[in-house]
Amino acid sequence: MYFNSNRLTGFLLVLASLIAVGCSETPNEPIVIEGVPPVAYRSDFKYKQLNKPYNSNLSNIKRKAYSGAHDTVWGRMLSLYALPEVSNERVDRQLNWYLDHPDYIARIQERAAPYMHLILDEIEAKNLPGELALLPVVESAFIAEAYSRSDASGLWQFIPATGRLFGLKQNSWYDGRRDVYASTKAATSFLQDLGETFGGDWCLALASYNFGKGNIGKAIDRNEYNGRPTDYWSLDLPQETEDYVPRLLAIAKLFANADKYNIPLQRIPNQAYCAVVNVGSQLDLDVAAEMADMPLKSFLKLNPGFKKESTAPEGPHHLLLPVTRLQKFKENLAQLPYEERVDQRKHEEELFAERQRLAEQQRADRERREEQMQAQRERREEQQQAQRQRLEEQRDVQKERRAELLAQNQRQQAEAERKKRDAQLLAQSRREKQDKQHEQLVHNRHDDDSSFTGRYKVRAGETLSAIASRHHTTVKALRQANHLAANSVNSGTVLHVPASRNAEVIAEIKAVAKEVKKEAKNSNKPENSRFYTVQKGDTFWNVSQRFSLTPKTLAEWNGMSIKGALRSGQRLVVKGGGSSHSQPPQQLASSSSTRLIHYTVKKGDTLTQICKKFGVSAGDLRKSNSDLGKGLRSGLKLKIVTDGSHPTI
Predict the structure, then answer these.
(1) Is 327:310 a contact under the CB 8 Å cutoff?
(2) What's phi and psi for 597, nearest 5 deg?
(3) For position 416, what pLDDT does the model report?
(4) CA nearest 536: which of 568, 570, 565, 564?
(5) When you count CB atoms within 10 A of the terminal residue's CB, does the N or C end of the chain come out lower?
(6) d(CA 98, CA 508)
(7) Helix 89-99 to helix 102-112 angle, to the nearest 10 degrees?
């Protein structure tokens, strides 16, 4: 029976010594290329522009002629060489580094000894160039436990995603990337796929092994777009990838010319050093080492993929054992009772510890997610608060600007009103002064106010001032001659017009009248002002529409507020001579002349109301406005043809 109750203590002591020895043997030179981790492999990627058609079996590889013996793994490897010779300064620089470190080359050979025959079997089975067997020199310096900062692990330095893609399990019990047998099969399959993708251009294939297919494809596309060559040596790549391929070509060149460079090659027979055995179920590793009759350190060196003291409960259950120990191991395994394969107490403790670790990890992950979510909520709230504050500030600024514009408009309107009133008062003062001068001149020089030149019938819209000017007399003379109590006179009244016998007086009167007309032309109250007698129902709006004015202008002419009410019989001053100039002012409200009115439809208006308001029929209104066919709507501008006799106009 091979069960030892104290094997846990012994296992831990041996493992500690193994770690100490391993650390002491770690070389000073870099054993793993560090830097940007390669992009995860994508099985659906196909390089779209192959330099040459590829063969799925890569059967077109041409082996280099090798005349040496194949009795060592190095001789066998050299016989499988197929990469073309490359003369490049980057290769020479890497070769010089290797030549300057012969001790490193010796250590590389010692570490590779247990694995080279197995690796060459896979290289030859997949028809790959023999130089690729040395790729672990570049990747891990043939240290199966190597681990990089980019999370790559094992002889072939798989990152987790690519390892899983090629079937390498990774859990708390087992890491297939560190399993020499499983990772070698996965790496050679990966390299075979890359060689096919890039049409047998192994420089591009190796570069993509380090930097990723997608990244190499993008670099090729950039060169193609810029009209540059698309071979590996012409691509713009990270420094690590630019050194990666030259490093492999340099070590391959060194082994092929070991005698030339005075580098001794250790004699490693071309025979299988180890073999794979499937134990079928979970097995403690110290028990396996004891049954193989070999030190645990040496056993673990061949099986670094297992992370605990036994194989994984759910597999894999294969072990790598020296060929010389294989038969003894199988015999001892057959005699070992099944229940003694694993120390159940220890196994249960490990399972309990694993569950605790997973629970603690889940709790930590949950707390971390909650903290992240809380931080995100706080950031969102801060951003929303800042946004609300910015909006409030913008509204305050806009409100202040509107208030300033309103105050400015009010000041401008007040100033304009003041100037307008001042101008009106000045014009009125000048007219009154001129009227007084005119009356005084006529009064002083008129020979006989009692004599008349004849009679004159007052026309619609005429004033005593205009009549006096036309007949070269004064308003005062007209009032005295006709016994008028005021300066106003009704249309149709027949006046006695006094005569003037003095020619000099007449000339002076004409000069004054001319000045009066000139002043009246420039004033806001023309001489041909008319009067309108307010009818029942009249408003500023319909009266102003009759004379094509605005309600505000009509109110200003009469010194009234637009909000004030009109009284029936009230007389309004209407400046300017319109089409009703020849009619008496009293009859303006009953004129039957046809007029065109522009009316804007207001909210709530109906067609019946508009027709009634302007005294027109709906048919006439539609004839004048083709847009009514689309319906009556607020803001629509209407043309209304009506006569002036309608009382609402």
Answers:
(1) no
(2) -115, 135
(3) 92
(4) 568
(5) N
(6) 129
(7) 80
Side chain identity, residue 638: L
What span, in angstroms and rounded, lies between the C-alpha atoms of 600 and 640?
11
AA identity, residue 92:
D
Q: Give the position of tokens 């050194």.
A: 243
User: How many Å apart are CA 355 and CA 310, to the nearest integer?
Assistant: 17
Could you please state the CATH topology (level 3) that the domain comprising 455-517 is classified under. Answer: Membrane-bound Lytic Murein Transglycosylase D; Chain A (3.10.350)
Closest CA to 190 of 174, 170, 216, 168: 168
The predicted structure's pLDDT at residue 577 = 44
pLDDT at position 45: 38
Report, in angstroms and rounded to the nearest whole number, the Rg of the chain calculated over CA atoms. 57
The C-alpha atoms of residue 594 and residue 383 are separated, in whole angstroms, by 68
Is the Cβ–Cβ distance between 185 and 305 less than 8 Å?
A: no
CB atoms within 10 A of CB 407: 10
DSSP run (H or E) holding 572:
strand 571-574
Collapsed DSSP state (helix, strand, coil) of residue 200: coil
Give the C-alpha distances (Å, rounded to integers) separating 431 from 150, 471, 612.
Answer: 102, 19, 45
Answer yes or no: are the C-beta atoms of 145 and 178 closer than 8 Å: yes
C-alpha angle with apex 455: 453 to 461, nearest 5 degrees?
120
In angstroms, the CA 166 to CA 149 distance is 21
The residues pairing with 319 across neighbouring beta strands, listed in sequence order, are 277
- How large is the angle between the packed helices 180-197 and 202-211, nearest 10 degrees? 120
CATH architecture of the domain covering 69-261 = Orthogonal Bundle (1.10)
Backbone angles phi, psi at 643, to 5 degrees: -95, 155
User: Which residues are marked as active site?
Assistant: 139
Q: Are 177 and 158 in contact (CB under 8 A)?
A: yes
Burial 250-261 (b: 16+ CB within 10 A, else e): bbbbbbbeeeee
Supply φ then ψ for residue 345, to 5 degrees: -60, -45
Q: Are 209 and 187 in contact (CB under 8 A)?
A: no
> DSSP character for 492?
T
Q: How far apart are CA 70 and CA 76, in angstroms?
A: 5
DSSP 339: G
- Note the Cα 162 to chain centre separation in Å: 33
In the predicted model, what is the mean pLDDT of the chain? 79
Which stretches of the chain drop beneath a pLDDT of 70? 1-62, 65, 67-69, 346-349, 438-453, 499-529, 576-595, 642-649
Name residue 574's beta-bridge partners: 530
Q: Look up residue 603 and give its DSSP letter.
A: T
* Position 609, amino acid: Q
Domain boundaries for CATH 3.10.350.10 within the chain: 455-517, 529-575, 595-642
Residue 275: in which H helix or E strand, if any? strand 274-278
What's the half-sphere exposure (Cβ side, CA atoms, 13 Å) at 252?
27
pTM, two decimals, is 0.51
Give the span between the Cα atoms of 158 and 304, in whole angstroms.
15
Residue-level pLDDT at 514: 61
pLDDT digits (tens, 9 = 90+) for 182-200: 999 999 999 999 999 999 9
Containing H/E element for 518? helix 503-522
Tokens linked to 476: 């005062």
pLDDT of residue 560: 85
CATH for the 529-575 domain, from 3.40.1190.10, 3.10.350.10, 3.40.50.80, 1.10.150.130: 3.10.350.10
Kindly state which CATH superfamily the domain 595-642 is placed in. Answer: LysM domain (3.10.350.10)
